[in-house]
Amino acid sequence: MTLLPVEDAQARLLARATPITRTETVGLMEADGRRLAADVTARLTQPPFDASAMDGYALRAEDAPAVGSEFTVMGESAAGHAFEGSVGPGEAVRIFTGAPVPAGATSVLLQEDAEVLSGNRIRTTFAVQPGRHIRPRGQDFAEGEVVLAKDCRLDFARLTLAAAANHATLDVYRRPLVALLATGDELVRPGEAPGPSQIIGSNTFGIAALAREAGAEVLDLGIVPDQVPAIAAAVEKARTAGADVLVTLGGASVGDHDLVQKTLVDCGMVLDFWKIAMRPGKPLMVGSLGDMHVLGLPGNPVSSMVCGLLFLEPLLLTLSGRSPLSRERMAVSETAMPANDRRQDYVRATLRRDADGRLLARSHGKQDSSMMKIFAKSECLIIRPPHAPALEAGSPCPVLLLRSIDS
Questions:
Q1: Peptide bond into 314 cis (omega under 30)
Q2: DSSP assignment, residue 78?
Q3: pTM of full prediction above 0.90
Q4: Cα–Cα distance between 118 and 75 in angstroms, integer?
Q5: CA gap 258, 309 in Å, rounded
Q6: pLDDT tens string 158-180
Q7: Is the peptide bond before 280 cis (omega within 30 degrees of 0)?
């Protein structure tokens, strides 16, 4: 099979991905980052009454034509405890922020603009203006008003608005469910003692974190041995759970012990493409099993993480109704690099800013796809397009951000 260019592979993967339309109702505490499945309409008016914006005195503006006007304080209005009467000529009510403005009052005099006299009397020391420091009823929103539109992404501000509109739950689109299946007789879980021919299966945890950061839920199918019945049983678990994406880790090649692709095809998978013109990550596999997307990631940890960034992340964001992240930036290479072959290289590198704010990328010397320590130390991947000429130090180069350079 001919090696497929990275951009073509990404386009083919996303072409058949459509946002999830199944919905669920969740509490506000679980709604952060979710996409609204219906408009949110205010169930009350906010504020529900004319409210004071400051601490001071509620009074009639027409009773204070000039600085030095005097008033008799008749009572108090506090948040949750309104003054029950009304304000008449020459009267004032001590009022606190958020409290209802008594009937008859048309302005709030700041407490620092009032001179306290004896006998519950005050004198104005600042000009009084009608409507000053009063939040009118419905200033924020009115009952029945649409305050949040369907399809918007919920964040801290929008959740606060939904709560203020008196919603305890919200209708949202369901998160994509990603089933993760690691295969290989050589793998054991972290914390276990590996045998003489075994290694720790680490990829699951990085890909799970990447999936969750992209807004997905994760179903860990564990590690299964290189046996067709075991792989087929795990695939069936993913289908039964209603997974939107099945991600296999390792075993997708065609060696004698690479049984994942064959088993998936036997289970009904339609293979879309396999083998990408990239390094690391060449043996990436993409297909579909009914409505479930299938993404076969390489077994080498770095290859798996790079393919996760380039293919799994944009797939999950698309399924969530979001645009893929723009991770690519332009930088200046601090190291010379040789001419490239037909595969697009993703070279692990550090990234920093110089005094002028330019991004400077420095590649690590070793790039073996099994070396996760170097990947974890990197802030970016230098992108070397197919057949790119030799790159001199100080030359511009595209990079793929692994994390924010300013974090």
A1: no
A2: B
A3: no
A4: 15
A5: 23
A6: 999 999 999 999 999 999 999 99
A7: yes
